[in-house]
Amino acid sequence: MPKKLLHIQLLPLLSGVQNFSLHLLSALPASEYEIYVASQPGGELVSAVKNAGYHYVPMRFMKRNINPWDVIAFLDLIRIIKTHHIDIVHTNSSKPGLFGRLAAWICNVPLIVHTAHGTAFHYGQSPIVYRCYELSELFGNRFCHKTVFVNNSGREYCIEHGLIAEQKAVTIYNAINPVLQQSLETIAVQRSFFADGMITIGSLLRFSDPKNIITIVNVACHVCRLKPNLRFILVGDGEHLELCRTIVHSFGLNQRIILPGWDSNPEPWLAKFDLFILYSLWEALPMSIIEAMFAGLPVIGSDVPGICELVDDSTGYIVPKADPALLTETLIYIADHADEIPAKSLRARAAIAAKCSFPEMIRAYTDIYANVEEVLLS
Q1: I want to staple 129 with a disulfide (CB 3.0 to 4.6 A). Which of 83, 103, 125, 271 is the partner?
Q2: Cα angle at 368 between 367 and 373, to 5 degrees?
Q3: Angle at CA of residue 202, ends 198 and 205, nearest 5°
Q4: 220 near 277, Cβ under 8 Å?
Q5: Has residue 123 got a pLDDT over 60?
Q6: Mind listing the pLDDT tens digit for each residue in 253-297?
Q7: Domain 3-175+357-375, CATH
């Protein structure tokens, strides 16, 4: 009889965390797993789940921030797990990760797995808030059998600070499915750098505070005035999109800093770029960088651990986070040294292929799913 596997997400988007689930689930043997996906209702994830032939379960009371509905949201998770007789609960993101693990434990689910796509504690928080979120991770990790970290730095930090027992923690690097990988590798082979004499720096990202998008846009405006051979295409949506469009318009740079909004299809945009930029304040292991490197793009990234595990000076440009002056300096350097980019492109493709293997990711997760007895709490 197939095992009933429930993946719990929060937002019904098709961004990195949700695409991780879809990529993983698509590679599982249909004869061995009956798949359920739960999230807030109403977004692109819902149709993607249904189109894949999985069961979609709406979490109507789950909100992103702490609020009075949380008790009902938690009880609703218990109802979902019991109603569908779930065998494996796999949580993603911080809040559904905490609620989902505890609900699954109460329901005596045989196997509870959490993937930490980053942590709730991060740069910029007050010490009290930071510690409270650390304690919430410690609490959540007590109610699961395995916590998967998508980078080594997060796993090592949590072990070192006593937030998880070492035997419960494992690192599995994210990867992309072979169809997308092949498409991106084709783009890399066919790429012609600086086709119109311009260096195009692009990104696929959410226009939100963690991505430091306002800094990126302000710096882009300043360097475009200094360097006429630079152009930016920043694809995405979010709470700061309209503000960023206003900033670009105020500089009169709408033709050189292009903000087209959200597009769920990354390939055409990656084909237009010469470099990829992600200057985040914190990251776990960004899928957007993995896709960009498979497409042969050197990466301009902030020096946060999740990016530094993918990118170094041989495959891109690492810039200290939250330092607009150094980011400006780096972009000016790139404008004057474009001849470095093709060689970094080749090294980026080789580096990401060695680190982020889809077959290895699937093997590691299916081993966890299959060996229930080995991952039970001691």
Answers
A1: 125
A2: 105
A3: 170
A4: no
A5: yes
A6: 999 999 999 998 999 999 999 999 999 999 999 999 999 999 999
A7: 3.40.50.2000
Instruction: Give me the torsion for CA of 275, 276, 282, 286, rounded to 10°.
Output: -130
Angle between helices 94-106 and 127-141 (to 10 degrees): 30
**Residues 32-71: tens digit of each pLDDT:** 999 999 999 999 999 999 999 999 999 999 988 778 889 9
Mapped onto helix, strand or coil, the DSSP state of residue 336 is helix
CA proximity to 279, closest of 330, 239, 334: 330
Query: Distance between CA 185 and CA 179 in Å, rounded?
Result: 10
CA dist 372 and 144 (Å) reads 12
- Cα(283)–Cα(290) distance, rounded to whole angstroms? 13
* pLDDT score for 298: 99
Domain ranges of the chain: 3-175+357-375, 178-355
- The contacts of residue 297 (CB under 8 Å, 6+ apart) are 270, 273, 274, 275, 276, 345, 348
Cα gap 197→348, rounded to integer Å: 22
Interatomic CA distance for residues 195 and 177, integer angstroms: 29
Taking the C-alpha atoms of residue 336 and residue 344, their distance in angstroms, rounded to an integer, is 15
Joined together, the tokens standing for residue 187 give 């783009």
Confidence label for 374 from pLDDT (cuts 50, 70 and 90): low
- The overall average pLDDT reported for the chain is 94
**For position 376, what pLDDT does the model report?**
42
| Same CATH fold assignment for domains 3-175+357-375 and 178-355 | yes
d(CA 261, CA 39): 23
DSSP string over 106-144:
HTT-SEEEEEESS-S--TT--HHHHHHHHHHHHHHHTT-
Helices (H), the chain: 16-26, 44-51, 70-83, 94-106, 127-141, 152-160, 178-190, 213-226, 241-251, 267-272, 287-294, 305-308, 324-336, 341-355, 358-370
Residue 16 neighbours by CB under 8 Å, 6+ apart: 117, 174, 286, 287, 288
The pLDDT tens digits of the residues spanning 215-244 come to: 999 999 999 999 999 999 999 999 999 999
